[in-house]
Amino acid sequence: MQRTLPFDFLDKVCFAATDAVQGTSNAPTWELVLEGHLPEPALREALRLLALRFPVVTATVAPEEGDRETAKRWSWVLRDAAIPLEVVALTDEAALTELRHRLCDRLIDLTQEGGLQVVLATLPEEQRLFVKQHHGLADGRAMLTLLTELAGFIRAAERGEPMSVAAPYPRRAELEALALSPWAHRRLFVGGIWEYLRGLWSGIRLPVSELRQNRSLDYTGGNRTLHLTRPAALLDARAATAKAAGANLNALIIAWLFESNRRWHAQLGEQPQRVNMTLIAETRPRGGFDSFANHLTSFIVDLRLDQVGDTRALMLAAHQQLRAQAARRAHLRRYLVERWMVLALRMGDLRKVLFSAGPTVINLNLSNMLAIPIPTIAGEGWRVTAALISTPTTPRTGIVLTVTRCEGVVSFNFNYKTTVVSQEEVEQLVAQFAGLLDSASGGL
Hints:
Helices cover 39% and strands 22% of the residues. The longest helix is centred in the middle third of the chain and has 24 residues, at 182-205. The mean pLDDT is 96. By secondary structure, it is of the alpha+beta class. The radius of gyration is 22 Å and the shape is globular. The strands form three sheets. It has a six-stranded mixed beta sheet with strand order 5-6-7-2-13-12, sandwiched between helices.
């Protein structure tokens, strides 16, 4: 008898957004820079234990009825399988770059293989540990839990300590994080319909402007990332400046992304009008909720770049919108409506929606993980000194920004598709962003 786990709303969305023909993998790649030497035998033993602790990482997915195109309901099918480990010896940085590109472009077919893959790369002076995860498995916060436990298993294996896994780490339903009563669920759902009607009316009055990174539907190119790094102390100073101005660091980063896009498009001879951005948000309660799964929703910041004058005004407007949305729980309202629609769709129809050639609805995407910094990951004679993440994009957001913090360094990871924008174009955008970040008082 097959052992299965429920396939939730975001699992289904992430799986649907994976398509070899369209060129979308929806599988982030974590690159951990190692100082010292991580022994291969200890890593293999740790991965064996990790598969027992997080059994979904080796699971495949299968329809509960029908086939890949017609099924609405799917399940995770648990398997007694190992987490794939690839060990490679590299001669130089060029070989490392080639490996990085190969891994970032690798497609994981969840119908045939598990959603977690690990590569240990050894260079003459250092090592890199690549951990590739399909986003259907879990969100970033859950992955940090997995990486922390992986490090603990490696340390135990290095010391020769016998280890066993008493129980699998819990994988809880998305709705459990919301803890809604039936009445609250219905009330938020009705409010979600209102949120969508309001958004539809706004789009009729003035559609969002199409930015450079929204114009192509050709996502068959490479998944690439430009990493802009700064000392965490600089961001702490920027946070204090934003707070003094009546906002916070999150709103300031949003403003930098809007303003850098406005300046970049001015270089291109364009003036965007209405531009919006999805801001990834967690639904987990603040404490006491352990779950290796996806527990995400998003806020939407919607601004007139042709009317809001400068970075400070953008920051305050974004902060005001986020506070208003949080007060009326707009992100949860939209989530419940989206959940209802997606779970009712056949997989083939959901793919058509995701890859449709309709007008641009969302311009930009930001995932700010500064509130959950990457923990110290170390063992006997080795430690992670830096962590980079490359997150593949999906139509029509050809550039997405993920912000992470590790070992006192903040990394602004600009992920992009090479068939949508060129590296030179992304460098122009990043230069504008860096100018705002590094200017006196963060451009305020």
